[in-house]
Write a structure and sequence with these properties.
The protein is mainly β.
């Protein structure tokens, strides 16, 4: 592929104008990378583990260089509106703030990153954590909701 990216033949990837893959990106088997509704950018040497789902809406998703995404993670940049009780959720539309993941991060297996999240550089997320909000650089997160448990020196 272009720029030396390696995408498994068993991955489902939307190769649209919204998708940008850096040099040396690797996308594992059974991943779903959706970029038809918003920008999706992966920096150089990003590795996406087996079975991960990444779906970019208008706010987009950016993953910094050298980031490792373990198997079965979910990164989604949208949220259904839920203001009205008299209208089904699917009919209320969606909002999309976007997701930003810094350079040299590690997302443990099963991690979920929700819309509106910004993760700083050098962050480690423990497996099965649910990440939201703004996460400072050089930290280790754990839990649901994910909380900072250690600052890396």
């Amino acid at each position: 592929m272009k720029f030396g990216a390696k995408v498994s033949a068993r991955a489902e990837v939307d190769f649209t104008r919204h998708l940008r893959l850096g040099k040396g990106v690797q996308i594992g088997s059974f991943c779903k990378i959706k970029a038809s509704a918003g920008p999706r950018e992966m920096g150089a040497s990003v590795h996406i583990g087996v079975g991960t789902v990444i779906s970019a809406f208008q706010g987009g998703i950016t993953i910094g260089a050298d980031t490792l995404v373990s198997p079965h993670c979910t990164i989604i940049s949208n949220m259904y509106r839920h203001d009205r009780l008299d209208v089904p959720l699917r009919e209320q539309g969606r909002d999309s703030k976007g997701v930003r993941i810094g350079r040299n991060c590690f997302l443990g297996a099963g991690t979920v990153v929700v819309d509106g999240t910004t993760i700083g550089d050098n962050v480690i997320v423990s497996p099965n954590s649910v990440v939201s909000g703004t996460i400072p650089a050089n930290t280790i997160l754990q839990g649901n909701p994910a909380r900072v448990v250690l600052t890396r020196q």
